[in-house]
Design goal:
Number of helices: 3
Radius of gyration: 15 Å
CATH topology: Conserved hypothetical protein from pyrococcus furiosus pfu- 392566-001, ParB domain
Shape: globular
CATH class: Alpha Beta
CATH architecture: Alpha-Beta Complex
Strand order of the largest sheet: 1-5-3-4
Number of domains: 1
Helix content: 10-25%
Structural class: alpha+beta
Mean pLDDT: 92
Largest sheet: 4 strands, mixed
Length: 146
């Protein structure tokens, strides 16, 4: 069942995948493993996170691509206000800093960062945690996403 939290943090809805814009490339080996797990389970366990103003994927590029390869056309999405001060961006690999504006500009211009470049964090109870913290288990059957 889809649930909602305060709208200033997130709203969970089913979205046509064609509306969404990525900002990172995918890792083919990880994608194949994830696709196989989702197919075996028959459900998508967690939604993805998307900016509500631009439809840019903040977290979940591999889940989106796995569902595409499984023949799905819709995906559960938590829409967030990416410009909010409760969301910040870091890098996974300690490379050059990346800003939210860089993510938006790159994605809207059709570009992509290398896989796992951006690490999005959200403030929860005065601590910064990975944005996956808001992605609660939803276990939506794949048949509902076709």
């Amino acid at each position: 069942m889809l649930t909602e939290s305060p709208p200033e943090i997130k709203t969970l809805v089913l979205v046509e995948m064609t509306r969404l814009i990525g900002h990172e490339e995918i890792m083919e080996d990880y994608l194949e493993k994830l696709k196989n797990i989702i197919e075996y389970d028959g459900v998508l366990k967690k939604p993805i996170v998307v900016d509500k103003s631009t439809n840019i994927i903040i977290d979940g590029h591999h889940r989106l691509e796995a569902l595409k390869r499984l023949g799905c056309s819709r995906i559960p999405v938590y829409f967030v206000n990416y410009k909010s001060r409760v969301i910040k961006i870091e890098t996974w690999n300690g490379s050059e800093p990346v800003t939210k504006d860089m993510v938006i500009k790159t994605a809207l211009n059709g570009g992509r960062f290398p896989p796992k470049t951006t690490r999005h964090m959200i403030k929860a109870s005065n601590n910064w945690v990975h944005i996956s913290h808001i992605q609660k288990d939803i276990n939506i059957p794949l048949r509902k996403l076709i």
